[in-house]
Write a structure and sequence with these properties.
The structure is a single chain. The protein is of the alpha+beta class. The chain has a 5-stranded antiparallel beta sheet. A 4-stranded antiparallel beta sheet has the order 6-9-10-11, covered by helices on one side. α11 links the parallel β12 and β13. The relative contact order is 0.08. Bound molecules: zinc ion (ZN). The site of zinc ion (ZN) has 8 residues, from loops. Zinc ion binds next to loops.
Length: 317
């Protein structure tokens, strides 16, 4: 790509990433005069000295001196190189970057991540279909009904059911010609050689989404007898338990509007709350709240309320 094309591309990407909108995904901004102000994400402060100008498409902090355009903001807040920040913003605006922009290892990594997202999405569709459209899924549907969860809510959260077979998903992926080593990297199957088998069996499945709505992993609740009661996807290149919150994709708009987030204990608590109209509920994923999870919420809301059971496990969390 020649220099002029590259400069045009950078301009196009910046034009499609309005700075106030982008910064608002990380910092709570309030209009003040001609600018927007908020607490600086680059240094600790109690009174806002971080300003963003829509006219100039620039940000500046009067406290620590940080400043720049939307690209440097993303570089700093996400700790990325210029090229990586450019890619993130291009994706955000659905602008396709020519691949020669990436080095070979970067391209490979990007393709690998895309495959993992795709596989998780494919698995979510497979499990959802079993839940909603098959005889096998009836038991799981009955369980949901018993817990007062409507079909509409189940669809909204993309709930699914993993059949009690060892190779339900394995067979499905084989038919699609998908290499099972890939599915193993996505945390969906276990084993090796000829001996691959499904990770999730006889479980109600809760797809875990990232902030872009992509499936990054699953939480699974056993339906019959068996241990453990809850089983999550393992950590993968796209799923880190301590860095995700269940329900945040669905809750985000409401959290921003109300400036308040509610942390409940489990998957079912989130879904029940949303169905009852409490749409700012999220849950940590079977762990105590981590610093990263707290940061995710702090960027969206002024107030975070923790609603855990009063039992000893809840107290400890
Ligand atoms: Zn600052």
């Amino acid at each position: 790509m020649d220099r002029l094309t590259q400069e045009r591309l950078i301009e196009e990407i910046k034009e499609h990433n309005e700075i106030v909108a982008v910064v608002s995904e990380y910092v709570q901004l309030k209009p003040q005069g001609r600018a927007y102000v908020g607490l600086c994400p680059f240094h600790g402060e109690k009174t806002p000295s971080f300003t963003v100008s829509r006219e100039k498409q620039l940000y500046h902090c009067f406290g620590c001196g940080a400043g720049g355009d939307v690209l440097s903001f993303i570089m700093n807040i996400e700790n990325l190189t210029f090229g990586e920040a450019l890619r993130l913003l291009a994706e955000r605006a659905n602008i396709s970057l020519p691949d020669q922009h990436l080095s070979t290892p970067q391209r490979r990594e990007k393709e690998e991540l895309e495959r993992l997202y795709k596989l998780n999405d494919l698995a979510a569709r497979f499990y959802q279909k079993i839940l909603l459209q098959t005889e096998t899924g009836k038991r799981a549907l009955a369980y949901l009904k018993e817990r007062g969860i409507s079909r509409q809510t189940a669809e909204q959260f993309r709930l699914g059911y993993a059949p009690p077979h060892w190779t339900g998903l394995v067979m499905f992926l084989r038919q699609k010609g998908i290499p099972l080593q890939e599915a193993e990297k996505a945390g969906l199957v276990r084993g090796g050689g000829d001996g691959y088998y499904d990770r999730f069996r006889d479980r109600l499945l809760f797809p875990i989404l990232n902030l872009r709505g992509q499936v990054i992993g699953f939480g699974g609740r056993i339906l019959g007898e068996g241990q453990p009661k809850y089983l999550n996807s393992p950590e993968t290149a796209i799923f880190q338990k301590g860095r995700s919150l269940y329900g945040l994709f669905q809750a985000r708009d409401q959290i921003r509007r109300e400036q308040q987030a509610l942390i409940v204990e489990g998957y079912m608590d989130v879904i029940t709350a949303h169905q009852a109209g409490i749409k700012e509920a999220v849950a940590s994923l079977g762990t105590s709240l981590t610093v990263e999870q707290a940061r995710l919420l702090r960027n969206q809301a002024e107030e975070v309320i923790i609603v855990y059971d009063a039992d000893s496990a809840g107290q400890a969390a």
